[in-house]
């Protein structure tokens, strides 16, 4: 192949369009928009209800230093990875978190946001546990996860609130597509026609600003406006997503 730097006499030369892809061009990952295989009896709680999983975890902190919380959270990730046969993946995430244990709280939060946004067992198992808190038959599952992934969730939640501005807070309308059973859809319809139609999701819930993309997942579309609820908190963590 011969390449000429002079294209003035080349009638076949054509301009080349250079495109730069950003994180916003990434395809939404389906797993984050489909409810977990284990469906809770009630997929939502009253809007005034704090995360039961987070509250239960915080009760076990026992005046731990923040550095100790980070170290224990990293140990919990390693513990869960070993149980799932994902030791190498878990060890890498553990090392990443321990690298910043002496850093600022914001630096630690950014690391947690990056780890959570990765395609791994971490976000799947954490959200599975958090969504089961109102399911009496699955009580043992989410309680077991408090010791493994509870502290990681506390760090992520704590710093999401504290650094919502620097992390990229967003208070506009967002969308979530989900695959719901007929029974779950019936429960949502029942709530929508009740005297108090406001409810909350107990887990960290992935959403999109792009309605068209969200509509491609599942059989149900949630249209969410966080600004109508002072307790609501939403952040754009796409800058930390691989």
Q: Any idea what the shape is?
A: globular
Q: Which whole number gives the mean pLDDT?
A: 76
Strand tally: 4
How are the strands of the biggest sheet laid out side by side? Answer: 1-3
Number of domains: 1
| Residue share in helix | 40-55%
Number of contiguous helices: 9
Largest sheet: 2 strands, antiparallel
Describe this structure as you would to a colleague.
The chain is mostly helical and 242 residues long. The chain has one domain (46-240). The protein is built from 9 helices and 4 strands. It has a two-stranded antiparallel ribbon.
Nutshell version of this structure?
Residues 1-13 have a biased composition (Polar residues). The chain is mainly alpha-helical.
List the helices and strands and how they pair.
Elements: E1 45-46, H1 52-58, H2 66-84, H3 87-99, H4 105-117, H5 121-130, H6 139-162, H7 164-167, E2 174-178, H8 182-192, E3 199-200, H9 211-215, E4 220-224
Antiparallel strand pairs: 1-3, 2-4
Give the key terms.
242 residues; two-stranded antiparallel sheet; 9 helices; 6% strand; disordered N terminus
């Amino acid at each position: 192949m011969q390449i000429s730097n002079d294209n003035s006499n080349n009638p076949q030369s054509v301009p080349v369009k250079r495109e730069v892809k950003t994180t916003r061009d990434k395809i939404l990952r389906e797993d984050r928009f489909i409810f977990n295989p284990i469906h809770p009896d009630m997929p939502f709680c009253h809007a005034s209800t704090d995360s039961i999983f987070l509250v239960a975890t915080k009760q076990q902190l026992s005046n731990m230093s923040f550095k100790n919380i980070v170290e224990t959270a990293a140990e919990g990730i390693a513990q869960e990875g070993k149980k799932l046969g994902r030791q190498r993946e878990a060890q890498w995430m553990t090392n990443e978190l321990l690298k910043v244990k002496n850093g600022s709280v914001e630096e630690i939060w950014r690391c947690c946001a990056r780890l959570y946004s990765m395609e791994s067992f971490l976000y799947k198992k954490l959200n599975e546990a958090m969504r089961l808190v109102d399911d009496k038959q699955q009580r043992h599952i989410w309680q077991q996860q408090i010791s493994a992934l509870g502290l990681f969730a506390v760090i992520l939640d704590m710093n999401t609130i504290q650094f919502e501005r620097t992390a990229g807070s967003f208070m506009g309308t967002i969308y979530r597509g989900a695959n719901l059973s007929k029974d779950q859809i019936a429960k949502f319809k029942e709530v929508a026609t009740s005297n108090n139609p406001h409810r909350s999701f107990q887990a960290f819930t992935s959403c999109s600003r792009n309605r068209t993309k969200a509509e491609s997942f599942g059989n149900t579309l949630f249209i969410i406006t966080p600004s109508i609820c002072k307790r609501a908190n939403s952040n754009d963590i796409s800058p930390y997503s691989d």
